[in-house]
Design brief:
The protein has 127 residues and is an all-alpha fold. The chain has helices at 12-22, 31-52, 63-84, 89-92, 102-122. Helix 1 packs across helix 2 (31-52) and helix 2 (31-52) crosses helix 3 (63-84).
C-alpha cells in the first residue's frame, strides 16, 4: 500500500501536544510517525462511531476486523477512565449492553451466589 502526501494545516497546540507525547512513546521516532499514529487512532474511533450509528463499516473492513484493530488502541483509554471512575456504569461493570452478555452475567451471578453461601457458612463472628 503506497502513501500519498497530503498537506494538512494543524493547529500549533496540537503539534505541541504531539511533540510532548513523543517523549512517552519512543516507538515514534519522528514527528510524522507520531502524527500518523494519531490519525490512525482517530480514524478507528470515527469508524466505531459510524458503526454505532447503524452504518456499514466505512473502510471496507468487516465489523470484526475494526473491533480487532480498535480494541488494543482504545483499551488503554478505557482502562484510564475506569481507574478515574468516570465510565458509565454498564461499561464499568462489563455489561456494555451488547447482545450475548446474558451468559456472562448469569455466570457472574452464580459465582456471587456461591461466594455469598460460603461467606454465610463462615458466620459473622469475625466481624
Amino acid at each position: 500500500m503506497g502513501r500519498i502526501n497530503k498537506g494538512l494545516r494543524l493547529p500549533q497546540d496540537l503539534l505541541a501536544r504531539a511533540a510532548h507525547l513523543r517523549s512517552y512513546h519512543p516507538e515514534y521516532e519522528t514527528e510524522a510517525a507520531m502524527l500518523n499514529a494519531m490519525l490512525y487512532r482517530g480514524l478507528l474511533i470515527l469508524e466505531v462511531e459510524a458503526l454505532l450509528g447503524g452504518g456499514a463499516p466505512p473502510s471496507g473492513y468487516t465489523t470484526q476486523q475494526i473491533v480487532a484493530m480498535a480494541l488494543p488502541k482504545i483499551l488503554p483509554a478505557l482502562q484510564f477512565m475506569m481507574k478515574m471512575g468516570v465510565l458509565p456504569l454498564p461499561i464499568a461493570a462489563g455489561n456494555g449492553g451488547a447482545e450475548g452478555n446474558n451468559e456472562r452475567v448469569e455466570a457472574e451471578e452464580a459465582i456471587d451466589m456461591q461466594t455469598s453461601e460460603e461467606l454465610g457458612r463462615l458466620g459473622s463472628h469475625f466481624l
